[in-house]
Design goal:
- There is one protein chain.
- About 85% of the residues lie in helices and about 0% in strands.
- It is mainly α and about 200 residues long.
- Helix 2 packs across helix 3 and helix 5 (about 135-160) runs antiparallel to helix 6.
- Belongs to the VPS37 family.
- It comes from Drosophila yakuba (Fruit fly).
Length: about 200
């Protein structure tokens, strides 16, 4: 197909032809039952116009681009491209927000883990203190302390019999240890009585 340089007059002519097209197309649609649709009705063009369309590709392209149906398609294409761009920006924004949420979740998990470890440590300390101050445990400690005081008394007697201490020292140390032993045994006995009463009461 021969080609020629497209001039401004040719573009104006193509635009004029395209502007004639909607009316021609509408008439063709009414007269031919809608078969022409939005396609150009070439039968309305003159022989010179048809020849120019045939020999001038740029003139032909301009003629097509100036058609209302093509312009409408271009507008729809631009609209879809804008929608795609907006969706892309929205997804990018959501992606950044998702990264921030993941970071916060990681920080919260770390803080929760640390808090759980501290809670576990405090719970162990509480259980240990509970055992230490449990009445039965205190009673056992009093029994051990009284037994130690009795052992001190026996040791003082042994030292006196072996001549390691004099009479006055023996009396002072023996009486002191005996007093401590008696006090601890009395406390242990009172605590034992209270525990027995609580046990009978079902507490």
């Amino acid at each position: 197909m021969p080609t020629t340089q497209h001039s401004p007059q040719g573009h104006t002519h193509a635009h004029s032809l395209a502007q004639r097209h909607p009316q021609d197309s509408s008439e063709a649609k009414d007269s031919e039952g809608g078969e022409a649709g939005n396609m150009p009705n070439l039968s309305t063009l003159s022989l010179d116009e048809l020849k120019q369309l045939d020999r001038d590709p740029e003139f032909f392209d301009d003629f097509i681009e100036e058609m209302s149906v093509v312009q409408h398609l271009n507008e729809e294409l631009d609209s879809m491209m804008n929608q795609v761009e907006n969706i892309s920006k929205e997804n990018e924004s959501k992606g950044s927000h998702l990264v921030e949420l993941k970071r916060r979740l990681s920080d919260d998990y770390t803080a929760l883990k640390t808090l759980g470890e501290k809670c576990d440590q405090l719970n162990k300390k509480y259980l240990k203190k509970s055992e230490e101050y449990a009445p039965q445990h205190i009673r056992e400690l009093l029994q051990i302390a009284a037994s130690n005081a009795d052992a001190d008394c026996d040791r003082h007697v042994e030292h006196f019999l072996n001549g390691k201490i004099d009479v006055q020292t023996f009396l002072n140390t023996y009486q002191s240890s005996k007093k401590i032993s008696a006090e601890r045994k009395a406390k242990e006995e009172r605590l034992g009585t209270q525990l027995s009463a609580l046990e009978r009461a079902g507490i």
